[in-house]
Design brief:
By secondary structure, the protein is mainly beta. The protein has 4 domains: about 10-295; about 345-405, no CATH class; about 420-545, no CATH class; about 565-710, Immunoglobulin-like (Sandwich), CATH 2.60.40.680. It has 5 helices and 54 strands. Helix 2 (about 450-460) runs antiparallel to helix 4.
Length: about 700
């Protein structure tokens, strides 16, 4: 049937028609751009030397251009149509909006130049007008091409401008599913050359071609010869699913979309009887609520706004169901578009009731797939304590009231602010303030170690996921002699926790009070009556390295942190193999092949167990000027604790990876004047070696073998 005017077809069936040339069922040359609504075009064919468009041929380029005229196709089926170019549709110079259409088992004849198993398109300038071709909520299933583009082949005249806009030319695909399409040449999905193609909220999965040079990703979508291809908020198959790398754009996913029935009744893929609705049981398809609502097109699909077109978003999917719709418990918790042509529909149902009192229960369907979903209702879990984060956990089957890390706070550096209503006394908000295990005990585990230092460094960077702001705020120098925190997390808090590690407890009864001066010029005799002294910030921790007398030492409790595997090994290497009576020897600690290291703590064993009684530890230090220092040139902080024979080093943020041997720190020994034995130095077996990555996890590293120095 040849179209010479803008004719509309509604509810029509075109079957088993043939045409020599273009358009087995409908041929629309010149400026004839038909409208088709709820039509079926099956088993139509075009033959002859051209044989273009097995079901429909449209060539607006052949006639006089008509502004604001667009071919419209809505809710139509194109199935088992055949041609040389464009098994179902052949479009050239035509503006077209194709909405809710199914292209199933269309094909081109054999031949390397037979492109576009379902659709062949060329964007061509018609007079002064250039229009887009747009597809929304469409299904392309089991189409095949003898050449390129099993589902679609698209190109444009070389002199046209792309970018999809007025006066420009492109193809846009919205919310569509393209799967199990095949090409004997390149790209079973969509192949473009000299073209601009943009796709949104769509699925490109398990399309295939016979071109051995084409990657799995290029079998889905491929642009060549200067094409501009953009795919976003879509599910695109690549060579390795869920490997952390997704094709085209970070908004895409590469997870199996879990179609409901990818084989169909005949149990064979690529035959056209498959059900490509997303599954909801036993597993929920990853395309649920994974799209972008901003990429749902409005009723004016084409770049030229047609008179009377609906500028509101198209609010249905291929089945005519509402889009977007919320899948409970998945995504942002609001109505969000699914990827692909179908939108999963969920309604509240007592038939899906679970045993969790804080959930609302739904039955969800997509085509023949049906399952239950459960939406957590956090409001049902609110307790009487303001400091808890109240959530409904489907996994745990109950309400979970998690203490907020950064809610509680006071103005005392000697108390530990914590949300814990089980501690007495506690406030009405659930906050309690037990005494810390000493000044600098930021984590509340009873001592000061590398984890306290890392918490303060994180706080300095504005991160309070492990330790709360009140516990990290240790600097009291802005209010001398009051020991009240200053409300800021800055370098002074970092220096304060390093002081605490070194044994200085200025406020909580552990040692002599020491205030940090802003510069050397600010050092002056302390006006206070408690014997406190001032030291310079500019000289760093070295200026307060000697520990004030504080009484007995303590063993820091083992910190309960996640442990991760590590290939790093440690070694203790003396700078000399022998020592004279009364002489000194330094023992360096090295690490081999560190990966993603943020900080570390080293500790020797006690005097009577770790080395001969005829020697004494006289220094513990980190030589940051050594070029083999693990953090050489990086922004790191360190401290030494002479009483407990410890050192700690940490980066302000990030981590360092080093191959080969790197230097960590040094312990210095002095032999007695009348020694009996040589010196044997060993790292503490409990908390002597703590290496930590940027996430706070402890690297699984064994203590090194001991280092021995013989007497001369």
């Amino acid at each position: 049937m040849h179209q010479l005017s803008h004719t509309s077809f509604a509810g029509c069936v075109f079957e088993d028609n043939q045409c020599v040339g273009g358009g087995g069922a409908i041929c629309a040359p010149f400026d004839a751009l038909p409208e088709l609504t709820s039509c079926q075009l099956r088993r139509n064919s075009a033959s002859g030397s051209t044989a273009q468009g097995g079901a429909l041929y449209s060539n607006a380029f052949a006639g006089s251009p008509v502004e604001n005229v667009v071919m419209e196709v809505f809710d139509c089926l194109f199935q088992a149509n055949v041609a040389n170019q464009g098994g179902a549709l052949y479009l050239t110079g035509s503006a077209a909006d194709i909405l809710n259409a199914r292209f199933i088992s269309n094909r081109t004849n054999d031949g390397s130049d037979r492109h576009g198993g379902a659709v062949w398109n060329r964007n061509t300038k018609v007079g002064d007008f250039v229009y887009d071709v747009d597809f929304a909520n469409c299904l392309f299933l089991a189409n095949s091409a003898g050449g390129r583009g099993g589902a679609m082949y698209t190109t444009r005249d070389a002199n046209l401008v792309g970018n999809c806009g007025l006066g420009a030319s492109c193809v846009e695909i919205y919310g569509s599913t393209l799967s199990q399409n095949v090409a004997a040449g390149k790209t079973g999905g969509v192949y473009g050359e000299y073209t601009t193609l943009k796709a949104y909220n769509s699925i490109f999965w398990n399309n295939d071609d016979s071109d051995g040079a084409t990657s799995i990703m290029s079998e889905q979508v491929l642009g060549e010869n200067g094409s501009d291809i953009s795919v976003s908020s879509s599910c695109v198959q690549d060579s390795l699913a869920l490997d952390g790398s997704v094709p085209f754009n970070a908004s895409n996913i590469d997870a199996d979309p879990l179609f409901f029935d990818p084989l169909g009744p005949d149990l064979t893929a690529f035959t056209g009887d498959e059900d490509l609705h997303p599954a909801v049981d036993p597993a929920v398809s990853p395309v649920a609520d994974a799209g972008n609502n901003l990429s749902i097109p409005n009723g004016c699909l084409d770049s030229v706004v047609q008179p009377g077109c609906d500028e509101d978003p198209i609010a249905i999917d291929l089945d005519g169901n509402p889009r977007p719709a919320n899948y409970p418990g998945v995504g942002p918790g609001a109505d969000t578009a699914d990827m692909g042509a179908y939108e999963i529909q969920c309604t509240a149902s007592a038939a899906c009731a679970d045993a969790v009192a804080c959930t609302t229960d739904y039955v969800c369907t997509a085509g023949g797939s049906q399952g239950c979903a459960h939406e957590p209702v956090d409001a049902a879990c609110v307790d009487s304590f303001a400091c808890t984060i109240d959530t409904c956990s489907v996994a745990e089957g109950a309400c979970v009231n998690t203490p907020a890390i950064d809610y509680c706070g006071d103005l005392d550096v000697c108390t530990f602010a914590v949300c814990d209503p089980t501690i007495e006394p506690h406030g009405m908000d659930g906050c309690a303030f037990p005494v810390r295990g000493g000044f600098g005990d930021v984590t509340g585990d009873g001592g000061v170690d590398i984890f306290d230092i890392l918490c303060v460094l994180d706080g300095f960077a504005g991160v309070f996921t492990t330790c709360g702001r009140s516990n990290v705020d240790l600097d009291y120098n802005s209010v001398p002699q009051s020991c009240e925190p200053d409300g800021l997390i800055d370098i002074f808090d970092v220096l304060a926790v390093l002081d605490a590690f070194a044994g200085i407890d200025p406020c909580c009864g552990g040692g002599a009070k020491v205030f940090l001066a802003v510069s050397d010029a600010d050092i002056f005799p302390n006006p206070a009556s408690d014997g406190a002294t001032w030291v310079s910030v500019t000289t760093g921790i070295k200026s307060v390295k000697a520990k004030a007398e504080t009484g007995a030492s303590y063993d820091v409790p083992a910190y309960r942190a996640k442990v991760v595997a590590s290939d790093t090994t440690l070694a203790m290497v003396p700078q000399s193999d022998t020592i004279d009576a009364g002489g000194t020897v330094a023992v360096d600690v090295f690490a081999d092949d560190v990966k993603d290291l943020r900080g570390y703590q080293l500790r020797l064993t006690g005097t009577d167990a770790g080395f001969a009684a005829s020697a004494t530890i006289i220094d513990v230090y980190v030589d940051t000027e050594r070029e083999d220092y693990v953090f050489f040139g990086a922004d790191a902080r360190h401290a030494e604790d002479m009483e407990n024979h410890r050192m700690v080093v940490a980066l302000l943020d990030g981590g360092v990876t080093q191959t080969g041997r790197v230097y960590l720190g040094t312990f210095v020994f002095k032999a007695d004047e009348s020694p009996q034995d040589g010196i044997r130095a060993a790292i503490h077996s409990n908390d002597g070696v703590i290496l930590v990555d940027p996430s706070g996890a402890v690297l699984d590293v064994a203590a090194p073998s001991s280092a021995e120095v013989a007497l001369r």
